[in-house]
Description:
Strand order of the largest sheet of chain B: 1-2
CATH architecture of the domain at 84-275 and 305-324 in chain B: Orthogonal Bundle
Strand content of chain A: under 5%
Order of helices and strands of chain A: HHHHHHHHHHH
Number of strands of chain A: 0
CATH class of the largest domain in chain A: Mainly Alpha
Oligomer: heterodimer
Strand content of chain B: under 5%
Largest sheet of chain A: none
Structural class of chain A: mainly alpha
Largest interface: A-B, 99 and 99 residues
Number of strands of chain B: 2
CATH superfamily of the domain at 84-275 and 305-324 in chain B: MetI-like
Largest sheet of chain B: 2 strands, antiparallel
Helix content of chain A: over 70%
CATH architecture of the largest domain in chain A: Orthogonal Bundle
Structural class of chain B: mainly alpha
Number of helices of chain A: 11
Radius of gyration of chain A: 24 Å
Number of helices of chain B: 13
CATH superfamily of the largest domain in chain A: MetI-like
Amino acid sequence: MNIEKKRKIESVIALTLSGFAATIGLFWLVYILSDVLIHGLGALHISLFFNDPAPAGAEGGGLRNAFVGQLMITFAATLMGVPVGILGGTFLAEYARGKKFARIISIISDIMVSVPSIVIGAFIYAMLVRPLHHFSGWAGAFALSIIMIPVVLRTTEDMLSLVPWTLREAAFALGAPYYKVIIQVVYRGAATGILTGVLLSIARVAGETAPLLFTSFNNNFFSTDMNRPIASLTVTIFQYAMGPYKSWHEQAWGAALVVTLFILVLTIAGRLILKWRYRR
Amino acid sequence: MSILRTCGKVCSLAISPKRKFPELIFLSLTAIASFSVIFFIIGIIIVLFKESSLAIGKFGIVDFLTSTVWNPVTGVFGAATTIYGTFVTTALALLFAIPTALGIAIFVTEIAPNFLKGPIGIAIELLAAIPSIIYGMWGLFTLAPIMSRYIEPALQNTFGKLPFLSVLFKGTPMGVDLLTASVILAIMIIPFTASIARDSFNLTPSVVKESAYAIGATQWEVVKNVVLPYSKLGVFGGVALSLGRALGETMAVAFVLGNNHKIATSLFDAASTITVTLANEFTEADSDLYLSSLYYLALVLFVMSFVILAISKFFLLKAERKYSR
């Protein structure tokens, strides 16, 4: 066999292998999604959204408490995390642009994005749960907002950097002070980008379980009191899936489907907005 | 740009003090917000140290890290079993995930026809967004039964008879074990690793690839000798980032690892990782020493993942600098 032929065969084999790897990888991922979809659709009844949990092991009941709790925790986390993230990103991209410490903060934020979320739960437990002697919805929301801040901060920084300097110059030339330039000119130019960052950060924390385990804990009863333990979908999924009852497993699949769809919709919306705004 | 910035400064100097006040407020607001990140990192380190000081004082550093005893009843705690579990699941997961992820990245950038590139890329990114608890739950209900019924007995029958290797495949295949947990972890980090690798591959200038083709290189030779060397910094960074993520992953492994504190030699043994121990035992810790030991574990995990993430960031920054030239 001559060398050319050998090289060609080698190439075909290697590329087939990589195509094969790709197929395996994508196969598992499609499998997971379709499994969640099939099992989840079977469990989606109206009662899942509007009933409170039945006593353990009994048929029926729903997860109204967990849906409401999840929304409240996520909403509170967004209210706390997003403004801090946007303002922080503004400082890095505007007032501290090009400074060394701005660079360090943005690197540390990048690291913070991937820090184990369960450690953040432990941190909040020591700060907010043990001193007050009880779990609370606020503690869960704080934990999530700490995860959110670096995500929003980094996207805001990147998006503000994309706004051309000439725009700021034009505003300076009209005599506007820097804060007005930022709020009225730069924010407007970067609004869609920042919105994407916010959507993606909500998607990120909506599926977080580990930091909620020992902050907002869980609650089998309907509660809207953020000062008490409050149920969340993700912790409920963990509890129900590990539990012994069939009806619990079914409801866990239903909840899993809702969480997955919510996150996928947010992610797709974020991507579409980015594409629509920055492709041109 | 520096000229413009001085202009900005001069302009803001020229305005009256009365108008400067809101400027100062906005400046300090944004400064505080951005320093909150530093505050949180330092806060986490201080809190973890403070909370674990009891256990650090009692067990020391080397003894804690090397002791395999984890006994809440007698109040003796050592981290070796959980650190071992963390390392084994992460290492196995990377072993499964890296070749697959690189395969996907090569497929998407070099082989796939153009009309497939977009959709596969989007699919990968969406899959990276699915929360880990979904992977974990799927692992418990779907993968674990498949593993215990088909895959693990098959592995046992083929490799279980070989010398040396047989120790890895001992025991009853239950599906709740190291192997299943690593496979789920691998499936979870594949999209993440693949999308970083793809981005790095895409940065290879097509001129360089075309010159390789022009001197008669095959497609695989272009990938192996041009694309991979060119993008290796980015790929290293991406792998390190996945490693950091896998180390700290809780929910994907919590369902199928069994929280068993022992040094498991077989892939079919239940085990425990730092994160799984924290998730299962944190709210049940009844003594101060127990809780303090759990915080000690959290501190170990935090330090490990922080170092690895910092290394990955170093590689990615280096890669970025190289490509931007």
